[in-house]
Amino acid sequence: MPSPSPALACRLEAARAVVQDAARLAMSMRPAPGGPEGKQKSAQDWLTEADGAVENFIAQRMQALFPDDGFQGEEGGVARAGSLRWVVDPIDGTSNYARGRNRWCVSLGLLDGDEPVAGVIEAPALGEVYTALRGHGAFLNGKRIRLHR
Fold it and tell me: Which terminal CB of the chain, N or C, has fewer other CB atoms within 10 Å?
């Protein structure tokens, strides 16, 4: 297996650190179980204050680290264009998050054009961090994961 491009490997490692910090921010804002919930945008679509705060945090950090990369947020839409584009779901599983449950995560992916090339997902309440780099596999907490058929 060839080595990953240094530019993509660098971006993945930076994204992992940014998502870790973003997950800490989300955890600090998480409602207690049974506490006040976020706003329900539609039957299955929730929004909390943390969604915007986490998205803004990630957008600012990624722009500072990689100013030529694009950025697309779930809450704010496309904020910047670039041939490489970061795509974030600041709190994936907002309805669980808003209810103080554990099954939610912070998701950040990198596209080259329309092709996914790298990604980080952290589920902090579960102690899980998933990373992947195109052509180099996917990992859970640093250990390779495989598809079983």
Answer: C
